[in-house]
From TrEMBL:
Pfam families: cNMP_binding, HTH_Crp_2. Residues 95-162 form the HTH crp-type domain. CDD domains: CAP_ED. It comes from the Bacteria. InterPro entries: cNMP-bd_dom, cNMP-bd_dom_sf, Env_Response_Regulators, HTH_CRP, RmlC-like_jellyroll, WH_DNA-bd_sf. It comes from Sphingobium agri. This is Crp/Fnr family transcriptional regulator. Keywords: DNA-binding, Transcription, Transcription regulation.
């Protein structure tokens, strides 16, 4: 992705779509079924105007054969995505809600003219981390009172990412 913002969704049991992450500039979206096999894993939905560079499966095959250094970079992106996914899974399993919320805010923030912003509603953010909207609101309100974040309609600004990191890392 060259510019923009996408929300990524995956199918959960009961054929329900759940948000699993955000993708901004520099992200790699999608996969080539020729190389990875199987059906599409993730649905990406643009939430603001975006510019994408599409590379066909044929072009990927030529890159793999003729430009191994570029293919290694593509493999690095895939590894980074897998690491990010496993880290999120570990957060879900190991962290209580307060820490999980702080960790996901840090992981989901993108730079903007206002600073570090998470462009999500509280409902969508709650779905992404596996807690209720009420739980998210309770902790976000406490974070705002403590000066860690600022809340807006459909966005959360990270006002003090250092202290937010302390919350995510302790307890």
């Amino acid at each position: 992705m060259i510019d923009g913002l996408f929300h990524s969704y995956c199918t959960a049991p009961g054929d329900r779509q759940v948000m699993i992450g955000l993708s901004g500039p520099g992200s790699v979206l999608g996969h080539a079924t020729k190389f990875s096999g199987g059906p599409r894993l993730v649905t990406a939905i643009s939430v603001r105007p975006s510019i994408l560079l599409e590379i066909s499966e044929a072009a990927l095959e030529q890159i793999a054969e003729n430009r191994p250094e570029i293919w290694r970079a593509i493999a690095d992106f895939a590894y980074t995505n897998m690491r990010r996914t496993l880290h999120m899974l570990a957060e879900l399993m190991a962290l209580p809600p307060r820490q999980r919320i702080a960790a996901r805010l840090l992981a989901s923030a993108t730079s903007s003219e206002r600073g570090l912003i998470v462009s999500l509603s509280q409902q969508t953010f709650a779905e992404m981390i596996g807690v209720s909207r009420k739980t998210v609101n309770l902790h976000l309100t406490a974070f705002e009172r403590a000066g860690l974040i600022r809340l807006g309609y459909g966005w959360i600004e990270l006002a003090d990412s250092g202290r937010l990191r302390e919350v995510a890392d302790r307890e």
